[in-house]
Each structure stands twice: as C-alpha cells, then as structure tokens.
Amino acid sequence: MRLITEVASAAGIKEEHLELYGKYKSKLAPSLWAELKHQPDGKLVLVTAMNPTPAGEGKTLTTIGLAQAMNAAGVRTVAALREPSLGPCLGMKGGATGGGKAQIVPADEINLHFTGDIHAVTSAHNLLSAMIDNHMFQGNSLGLDPQRIVWKRVMDMNDRSLRNIVTGIGDGNGTVRESGFQITTASEIMAVLCLCSDLADLKQRLSRILVGYDHAGQPVTAQAIGAVEAMTALLKEAVKPNLVQTLEGTPVIVHGGPFANIAHGCSSVIGTRYALKLGDVVVTEAGFGADLGAEKFMDIKCRQAGLAPSAAVLVVTVKSLKYNGGVRKEELHQGNQPALLSGLSNMERHIENLRKFGVPVLVALNHFEGDAPAEVNEVLEACGRLGVPAAVSKVWAEGSAGGQELAKELMKLLDREEPVQYAPLYEDHLDIPSKINRIVTEIYRGAGVAFSPAAKRSLAIIDRLGLHHLQVCMAKTPYSFSDQPRLLGAPEGFTMGVRDITLSLGAGFAVVITGNIVTMPGLPAKPAAEGILVDEDGVISGLE
Amino acid sequence: MRLITEVASAAGIKEEHLELYGKYKSKLAPSLWAELKHQPDGKLVLVTAMNPTPAGEGKTLTTIGLAQAMNAAGVRTVAALREPSLGPCLGMKGGATGGGKAQIVPADEINLHFTGDIHAVTSAHNLLSAMIDNHMFQGNSLGLDPQRIVWKRVMDMNDRSLRNIVTGIGDGNGTVRESGFQITTASEIMAVLCLCSDLADLKQRLSRILVGYDHAGQPVTAQAIGAVEAMTALLKEAVKPNLVQTLEGTPVIVHGGPFANIAHGCSSVIGTRYALKLGDVVVTEAGFGADLGAEKFMDIKCRQAGLAPSAAVLVVTVKSLKYNGGVRKEELHQGNQPALLSGLSNMERHIENLRKFGVPVLVALNHFEGDAPAEVNEVLEACGRLGVPAAVSKVWAEGSAGGQELAKELMKLLDREEPVQYAPLYEDHLDIPSKINRIVTEIYRGAGVAFSPAAKRSLAIIDRLGLHHLQVCMAKTPYSFSDQPRLLGAPEGFTMGVRDITLSLGAGFAVVITGNIVTMPGLPAKPAAEGILVDEDGVISGLE
Lengths: 544, 544
What we know:
The structure is a homodimer of 544-residue chains.
Chain A: H1 4-10, E1 18-20, E2 26-28, H2 30-36, E3 43-49, H3 59-72, E4 77-81, H4 86-90, E5 98-99, E6 102-105, H5 107-111, H6 117-137, E7 144-149, E8 153-155, E9 165-167, E10 177-179, E11 181-183, H7 188-195, H8 199-208, E12 210-214, E13 219-221, H9 222-225, H10 228-235, E14 242-246, E15 251-254, H11 269-278, E16 281-285, H12 293-305, E17 309-316, H13 318-324, H14 337-356, E18 361-366, H15 373-386, E19 390-393, H16 395-398, H17 404-414, H18 432-444, E20 448-451, H19 453-465, E21 471-475, E22 495-498, E23 500-504, E24 509-513, E25 533-534, E26 540-541
Parallel strand pairs in A: 3-16, 3-17, 4-15, 4-16, 8-11, 17-18, 18-19, 20-22, 21-24
Antiparallel strand pairs in A: 1-2, 2-14, 5-6, 6-14, 7-12, 9-10, 12-13, 14-15, 23-24, 25-26
Helix pairs in contact in A: 3-17, 6-7, 6-10, 8-10, 13-14, 14-15
C-alpha cells in the first residue's frame, strides 16, 4: 500500500485538502471542492449487471479492476464505490471490497468502521427516533399519532430479533407501541446523504423527512420534531467523501452505501462529483442487477444530480447465464450449453433496457476459473450477434492485466463521435402510478401493475398531499425482472403486485414495495463473524 | 489550535507513531508503546470531588485547568480523560470537554463521534447480542434459557423507549422475549476496553463475558457464542488511545468512558499508562463524587492495572457545600453561611476517606463568579483546621493563570519526602458480602447492608460459581453517601439496601445495585440537541 498522501498527490490533490484517518484513508475537505469545481468533468461509466445468482456477479470487483486497467492503459481513471455495511460483512456476505487482484485497501478497515460514516448515519437516525418518542412522552404538542409513526430505528447489524419489537414498556418509559429496527443502510438518511449536493442541501433534505402523521392525518416531518440541526451536526463529517486506493494504487472514492431495494443503491453524488473532477474517466457501480441498480442510477441519481453517464458496462458471468437458464445454484459448476443459451435472454434484455436510457453498452464477462472456453465463446458470439461490444475480464486473477481488453473496448466506446443522448425513462410530471407502469412495462416487461389495498391507501395520501412529482424507487427481488424470485430469464406477461408505497421525502422518492422486502437481514447458521481472527498485532484474517 | 503533530512532537512523540484523524486528533500506535515502555512512570494524580449538585462540580474542568497550570509552571504534565458519550451530549448535559479557558479541543468533534471508539463498542456489543439471539434461532445447541439472557443491547443515545422492549415478534424473527437497551457507556465492553492492558488481554476479557445461563443454570459466555474474535476485530482501533490538546496546547489523552455507577467510571488503563510515560505528572479523573469515583479508581482501576496514585485532588464548590448543607438547588446562588458550614461535613468525610487509601489530599475550590469572598475564606479556613492543603481554582475564567496556586500546592504535595503508601480498601480474598460491607461501613459510614431476595439469589450464584475473588463495583446515587439521594452532608447509621448483584466477568467485578439505577437515560423536555446549529461551512454552535 502507498501512503494515501501519495495516492492523493498523484491524483493532483494537495495534502492541505486531506483529512487523514490513519495513513491509508482520508476524507476530502470541502476546500478541495472550491479548487476543483470549475474544472471540466470526466466521463461517467456505470458498472451494472444482469440478474445475479445468490453469490453475486462481481460488479464491485469489475469496477475496481476496470479502473486499474484504464489507469494502466494511461487513462486517468477514478473509481467511485459504496461503503460496505458492517452487518452483512459479519453476517452472510463477508467483506465488500472486491477480491483477488482487484481490491480496495485497507480492506479490513474499509469493511469494519472505515471513517465512521455509517455510524454517523445510525446516530442521526436514532436521534430522530428518540426525539419522536420523547416528543410524545413530553406532552405530544404536535398531536403525533403513535399508531402512525413511520420512522423506525436502525442498527448496522444483521439482527432479525429487532425487526418487530414493542417499545416503551414499563412505568415512565413512554408510549407502548410497535416499532422495529432496519439495518442502517436502509435508513432514509443514508439515501439523503448519498443524494445531497452539499451540507445545505443535506439539511434541507433532512428537514423534509416524514416521520409520521398527526391525529388529523397531516404529515409530521423531522423539521417539526426539532432534530434537523443536530442531525446535520452528526453528519457533517460523513458528508465528506473518502479516498482510498486499489491494490495497484488507483484512487477510489468510497462514499455512502444505501440499500438497493428500498433506496437507490448508488454511492454518493458528492463523491461522484469529486471523482469526475479528479478523473478523465470515473467508473462507478449500482446495486443489484440493471433492472434495479441501473434504472435507479439513471432515473434517480443522475436525474437529481444532473449527471450524464457516457457508458454502461454490463457484468455477466457464465454462472449467472446458466442460472437464468434454469440451472440450480448447486449445479452451476457443471457445463450446460442449453441453459447457457437460454439464459442469454436475460443478458439481452438488460442490454436493450440500458439502451433505452440512450447510453452505449459494453458487456464484461467476469471470468471464473471453472468457465469452459466453449462457454466463454458462446457468450462473446451472442454479444457479436446483438451488436454489443464485449470483453472477457480476468481482473480477479490478474488485476489490471486481466482488464486490458475490457479497458480497450471501453475506450473505443467513450471515443465514439456520436454524442451520448442520456435521458431518464420517465418524466417527473407523470403521476406515480404512471411512473411505476412505465418501469414495469418497459424495463421489467410485465403486463401491468396490481395495487394492494394498502398501496391504494398510500396512493390516496400521495394524491392528497400532492406528491406525484416524486421519483419512484422500486423495491423488488434482485433475482428476477418480476416480483417472483424464481421467474428467471426474460419473463413477460406477469402482473407486478405492489404491496405498499412509502414516502422518502428527504430522498425525493416514493418507495414502491413489491414482494416481501426485508430491511433487517438475519444472521445465517454460521455467521461470517465466526470465521474472523485477530492476532496479537491486531492483524485481522477471515474477513474477505 | 496547534496541529496535533506539533502537540505530539512537543510531548516527544514521533510522527510515525501517530494515526491521524484529521489535523487535530490522533490515535497513538502500538509502536509508540514499544518505544516508551521501558521509560519510568510519572506521578499519577486523581481529580475527584465531594458529593455534587445536579449541575456537577467541574472535575473535568479542574483536571484540564490543573494540567495546563502544571505545564505553565514548567512541570511536564499530561491529562487523561474519559470520552464524552453522545447520548448525554444531545440530551441533558451538553458537551463534556471542560469549559471557559480550560477546555479540550476540537470540542465539537470530541463531543460527537471523536475517533469512533464508542461506536466500535456499540458494534461489538450488539454483534454479541445478535449472535445470542441467532444462536437460539438456529437450534440453540448450547441450551440457552431465553428467560435468563443477561446481555442486552446498547445504543449511544438517550432513549427511554428502548429501556424495556419485547424482541423477536413475528414469524421467523426468533424467540419472543423481554430485553432492552442500555446506553453504550453502560456496556461491559466499555469497562473491558478501559481495564484491559492490551489487545490480548482485551480478547481474554471479552471471552469471559457472561451472556446468560443455560437451562441447567450453568453460565454461558461470549466465548461459547463464538463472538470473541469478531468483537476484538471491531475493537482493534478503539483500544488505541487518542491524543488531543487543551486550549493551551497541553497534551491530553482522551480514551474510554465507562458509566460511573454500573461500571468504574475511569478513563482507560492503556491511556493512563501512555500518559505516565509521556508526562512527569499525569492528572486524571473519575466519575461522580469520591465515594464512588475515587473508591473505584483505587479499588478497581489502580488495583487491576498495578497503578499507584501519588495524590488526590478533591474538587469542592461553594454551591455543592451549601447543597450538602440543605439548600435547594434553586437557591444556591444566595449566600447561606450556616448551610455552607454544615455542608463542610461532606467535604471532611471525603478527605478522611481518601486518606484511608494512603494517598495525600489537596482541596481545589472551583471558583464560580457568584462566590462571595467570605464563603471562599470559610472553605479555606476549614481546610486549614483539617490540616489539608487547599487552593482556589479559577481555571474556567483564567486558564492556567487561574490554576497557579493549585499547581503550586500540588507540586508541594508531590515533592514530599515521605513515600505515598497507596493501598486498596479491601483485599481480593474477602468474600463479596464482606467487600460490600467494608465499603459501606468505612466509606459510606452506613450501619450495615440489607440484601434483597434477588441479591441473595445472586450471592448464591456467586457462591456456586466461586466468584468471590471479584472486586465490587457499587452502583449508587452520586448525590449521597447513602442509597437515598436526599440524605446529604455526612449521614451515618443508615442501612444500605442492595437490590441486586450482577456479574461483569470480563471487567472483573460484581456490580452491586442499590436504589434505582437507570442505565438508559431519557431526553428532557428540551433536549440539548434542539439548541445545536450548523452553518454552511459545517461550524457547529450550541454544543458546549
């Protein structure tokens, strides 16, 4: 690892603009923005994926490896990534810093507390929660209806026991009511942190957060609770982007990490903007497959931030193609040409979808050791038939050397003469049901939408409060275009069931809940935490 | 503010041993210890207080001001303080970084997230909590009795609604059971962090933590749950002490912050040891009045760490003397000589008590603007009659200049020829009831102890498990020597009621609960959070 001061220096950042966290992590001070803001932006490249297997397809890995490869090819490139959440690191997933020769470092520190941003979100969120219950305890002058508090509490831990709880039990402990915890990355404050443009915008967004309704059915916001300034104080460091490096010394901005179902699943706007000033190319990623991640990246993040992506890289794997062709996950290591061919329908649809946003697409076949050459050729040939550039990526095994071909194809795409005509899928002025319908029919290819009674009641509130200008944030299974995880490939004709619609007024979107969305994961029978070891010098192993 | 690198350099710390958190905070790397450990220790001075008014007597302020004054007088002095907890900062108390011209800086960052130590304690604690419930969910091979889980969850927030909760409600969410949250500073992990000598000892202590009992009544530890290594990983940065400075550039180690009732209320052993290598004199403090703070400092912290204090500074105020003489807090600004004289009994008893530990005492009269000269003289004359050195401290108004006299008296005390004969009050080999009795009769001056049925059941468990070697950690009101907050002055003859005894096996003590001890504070009608403001440059006001 190089010192972060050296990485910064190579990226043109003077040491005075660094706020160091140890020797290998730094926050970027607002003074840097004052220096950078008049410089031209680099080109923004989104790394997204086809519908994944439960093991994931390697978007983070590919993002890191591609940034390394671009730098190796002489293009000043910065990666912009999400911060790993502690809960999943200690639970099912392990770390989230890439792997092999395409990693960001120091991996264990990034995976654990990093620079404390997620802890700050937890604190700000739970301060608001405590002030809501305290408001009711101290006389409830706002007339908050304890049955209609929508603001829960959060913790960055996988803890299913906290999903549904009863609080306030006992004498003098407040109002007894049902509540629950979400994981911190599901907090609206995380979405707000990632969508705001600066501290003033952060404060504005926090003030709009809906915490519940009063007895007359009127909305009550964080502003009314009196929590906004203190929440801003708690977040004032978290809003500054973090700089780290890859194993090859490529600068990476790792900042923010909202859920990809009930939130938009992208790293921060502020971090992306810094990256665009520092790199001629910025490679970033969005959560889940392109049906969720890329759609929200285009329709929410880029729209709100005024960003215009120049290209999208679609990560596919032989495994996920076979999975989408119907192979069970236990049998994915076996060859199965018919399933592979069948699963290509999933890739093809994602390519079509991405093109609907006016953005050129490049397929990255993330190579695994067990992939047969025939399988790899099958995928590349299919891409040829579809007229989409494609390259095999071996960045896990080889780092930048394994990403050369991918980088070359990306440079060709970025150097095209015809201008990129990015546009979001739907216009802001449409009403919420129309926006949902547009996504369901044009991206998911369902026949239509069925709203549950609860969703209809929520739509009535949206009508009454005049909130149709909001964007929609789809909360859906990542495994299928539909709301049914086992409907793989390229399904059509299904009806999308909308179970409920909730309001993230600070983030600026309505969350459309389909299927059974879990916002507080549980631990597995053998949590990743049990495999972690620390030696006497504090060196951690088993967290990757 | 000087750069922390400069403060460190002046204290003899090379930059290579710093792990910076921004420009004004740093962790001290273990490599520094390797360099320091063979150097001789400075002299350790405890700042403690008489029984306080609800506003507190200014121990932190006096500690900071005294360290500044000692440095101004040419004695290389380092202060060692506790980290402020976010909950009280946003709740009742506001910040905890001193005040006036005796402050540690950057105050707002120290008061908010600082270097993330308390967040790390929260994460480690709640990981264990989640793994306990997950263990039961996944088949409960240890046979944990859900009715006898003693390990709760923690949050660094004042949130009364979380004191008593029911968790695990709903299908697939685990075992429905009663539980609750404590504030993080009440976590045994905070006590463990503050008492451990290094990472290996931390791990040992974590492994001993009692989480509950199995259906056969046998204890179950964190080790059995499989959480210890991951908890250690989460704490590996938190265990490193933090360096900041006072307004006058005096180096201060701020590290750890356990509760002063159900824990021992002292800053970390590791931090104190570093300070003793860096300063010829180290000034440190302990929570609450001397009956709790100093007793635990002597009997728990110094004993476990093998530290020998050289002097104790007893902070008194005219207000607290009048308060102990029976004046209500609303009338403390008025003169009242009879009450002042009556309240001196409280000061006198603390002086007697401190001398029982073999440590010489110095009284610091923390001066407030409204104190009448006659009142001040009354206190100094009383100290003269008692043969105890005393000085007026005006460090709030004047910084080191206002602490000159106090520093001079302290130097006289430290330069005495006769050796200090520090000894703890009770021997480890006594049984738990005898240890409690010794404290109650010799420090509190009660007539005896009455154990509740619950306490007797706990004593039976202590018998059965052979745990009488533990130290005792008294959880008692800070306002009185007795267990009754309104029994002020120097009460005698009362019986101390012990409501329960809980086991902190990692910290190495049995917590003796008297009266109604709240381990999760609530917010007041007007939380301190509501008075905080942040401007567009991120400058915070209203947090002091």
